[in-house]
């Protein structure tokens, strides 16, 4: 939502750089929001859920801050064609370089002169081949599991439709016990 709002605020501008970036979005990159967030200067990849609003479908995105690219983990690729996914994610692809330019992200710290492409151009978006869900209602749970497994540096092998009922029950138990982090 922060990305879409920022993109809408600036899309009339003709220049690629020099966008006005909302403080709410800067707070995400600086690790202030959400409360469990990390400053992006301290990570190489950022994982996030992304709602493809026209289709009411969730996907996981991996933002690679070194390769300057976006990978999409979609558990139901038959639902939305690639070109539509790229169109829906275009605000992210275009806004990220402007956001990072605003905070001199690639000029200081660990990323100084370390990006593998012209980071100020729209970042490429690529769908990654992952296990597909077999029903209509599991996309959100798949996204949660993708992000959880990536964050723990574990393989996605357990992310199957057969395991989703167990994962839903496990998450419900964690929330009930207060073990799940819910800001």
Automatic annotation (TrEMBL):
**GO BP field:** protein desumoylation; proteolysis
Q: Tell me, what is one Gene Ontology molecular-function annotation carried by this entry?
A: deSUMOylase activity
Ubiquitin-like protease family profile domain span: 1-150
Tell me yes or no: is Cytoplasm among this UniProt entry's keywords.
no
Mind listing the UniProt keywords for this protein, alphabetically?
Hydrolase, Protease, Thiol protease
What's the family?
Belongs to the peptidase C48 family.
The protein here is known as: Ubiquitin-like protease family profile domain-containing protein
Q: What's the source species for this entry? A: Prunus dulcis (Almond)
């Amino acid at each position: 939502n922060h990305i879409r709002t920022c993109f809408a605020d600036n899309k009339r501008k003709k220049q690629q750089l020099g966008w006005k970036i909302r403080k709410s979005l800067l707070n995400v990159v600086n690790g202030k929001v959400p409360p469990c967030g990390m400053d992006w200067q301290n990570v190489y990849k950022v994982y996030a859920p992304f709602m493809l609003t026209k289709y009411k479908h969730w996907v996981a995105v991996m933002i690679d801050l070194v390769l300057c690219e976006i990978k999409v983990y979609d558990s139901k690729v038959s639902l939305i064609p690639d070109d539509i996914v790229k169109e829906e994610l275009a605000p992210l692809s275009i806004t990220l370089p402007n956001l990072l330019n605003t905070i001199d992200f690639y000029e200081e710290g660990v990323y100084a002169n370390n990006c593998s492409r012209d980071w100020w151009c729209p970042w490429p978006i690529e769908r990654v081949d992952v296990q597909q869900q077999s029903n209509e209602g599991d996309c959100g749970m798949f996204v949660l599991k993708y992000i959880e497994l990536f964050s723990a540096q574990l393989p996605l092998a357990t992310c199957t439709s057969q395991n989703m009922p167990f994962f839903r029950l496990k998450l419900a138990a964690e929330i009930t016990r207060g073990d799940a982090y819910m800001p």
